[in-house]
Design a protein that fits this description.
The protein has 370 residues and is α/β, with parallel strands linked by helices. It has a domain of 152 residues: Periplasmic binding protein-like II (D-Maltodextrin-Binding Protein, domain 2, 3-Layer(aba) Sandwich). Helices cover 45% and strands 16% of the residues. The chain is built from 14 helices and ten strands. Strands 1, 2, 3, 4, 5, 6, 7, 8, 9 and 10 form a ten-stranded mixed β-sheet that branches. Helix 7 links the parallel strand 5 and strand 6. Helix 6 runs parallel beside helix 7. It is globular, with a radius of gyration of 24 Å.
Length: 370
């Protein structure tokens, strides 16, 4: 009887051990995709000794909120702080802090194209190979350790009460025609500062794509526009009617705000004659303190789950396995379907931009009378 009891106890112990082990494996599968390497648990365990993650980005708190919430469901011990700043400030602040030995960011995420080009040329990006790399398109991985977080469209926004419905613009050509017909629209049309770190590559890419037609439009638009550096300022003044139309306005600052009354006041569209799509880059800097936590966040925002969370925050997912749903109104594929592949202007890491920057700036100043 004792032997039978002992055997039964041993069998029960083996069953419980197997169940617990299976449960742990299932928990790990729930935390990260099955195609991640077995050694990934080492990064997770190492992150528990860090416990914090500091991000510098040009994304607002409402953009990050669903990402951080879903990330913390997987890694609740990591306290995430995302600091919102101007595109170029992400790098200038990091460089000052890193140069003085002060605590600085663990992860950078910004749409400053020139900033990333200079930052990687200086050897400041950790060449981390994400297990998500094989799931992403080649254009989204411009160099080792630098990945695309999102593909954010620059859209046309207009105040429906300040612009007659018959004249709601669908393209930059429409806006140029409107200015010719209504000179009083001068200085009520806003766009990004063409000399700013964020705005410069957008306008340069548009002119390169549009050729003579874009040059002609700039000749009309240039003297009439007001330039801003903040999408928040643009949306606020469009809402107040101070500006009637905005073009190349960042979609991530518009889409999350279009619910309710604001959505009834403001209209928007992708420019039919060319929609700039900014590749927002992310990477782990060499002077990061909490490297393992940064790897976990970078992998998450590149994953299907992370891209969905970014979409919930108004940022534009680009993975083909993420579709518009819920608060995710726009994806890379949906933009392409709307305007056609020929009218997608990827604002990416083009060396021609740096080479021709001085010429572009001179042209921009001349056309806008700056």
């Amino acid at each position: 009887m004792k032997r039978i009891a002992l055997a039964s106890f041993a069998g029960m112990f083996a069953f419980i051990h197997s169940f617990v082990a299976t449960g742990i494996a299932a928990g790990q599968d729930a935390a990260w995709p099955s195609y991640y390497p077995g050694s990934y648990s080492e990064i997770v365990e190492a992150s528990k000794k860090e416990g914090a993650l500091l991000i510098y980005s040009n994304m607002a708190a409402f953009n990050w909120a669903p990402v951080i919430a879903d990330f913390n469901k997987l890694y609740p011990w990591i306290k995430v702080q995302a600091v919102n700043m101007q595109s170029a400030e992400v790098f200038s602040r990091y460089n000052v802090e890193a140069g003085s030995g002060a605590r600085t960011a663990d992860l950078l995420a910004t749409a400053s194209i020139e900033g990333w080009m200079n930052f990687r040329s200086a050897g400041n990006v950790e060449a981390y190979v994400s297990p998500e790399a094989g799931k992403l398109p080649d254009w989204s991985k411009p160099s080792p350790g630098l990945y695309t977080v999102s593909t954010d469209p620059m859209v046309i926004v207009y105040n429906k009460h300040a612009v007659a419905e018959s004249e709601w613009p669908k393209s930059l050509a429409d806006i140029a025609k409107l200015l010719v017909a209504h000179p009083e629209y001068k200085k009520t049309i806003v766009t990004y500062d063409g000399l700013s770190a964020f705005g410069s590559p957008i306008h340069w890419s548009w002119l390169k794509h549009g050729g003579d037609a874009a040059d002609g439009q700039l000749n009309i638009l240039g003297p009439a526009i007001v330039q801003e550096e903040s999408v928040g300022t643009m949306v606020s003044k469009l809402t107040a009617g101070e500006y009637r139309i905005g073009y190349f306005v960042s979609g991530i600052g518009v889409f999350p705000k279009l619910e309710g009354a604001l959505g009834r006041l403001l209209g928007w569209c992708f420019p039919e004659d060319g929609t700039p799509v900014v590749l927002r880059g992310a990477g782990i800097p060499k002077k990061a303190t909490n490297v393992n936590s940064a790897k976990l966040m970078l992998d998450f925002i590149l994953s299907q789950a992370g891209q969905r969370a970014l979409g919930e925050g108004g940022v534009t997912p680009y993975r083909s396995d993420v579709k518009p749903a819920g608060k995710t109104q726009v994806t890379y594929d949906s933009i392409e379907r709307a305007v056609g592949s020929n009218n997608m202007i990827l604002v990416h890491y083009d060396q021609q931009y740096l080479a021709g920057k001085a010429e572009f700036e001179a042209k921009w100043k001349r056309e806008t009378a700056q």
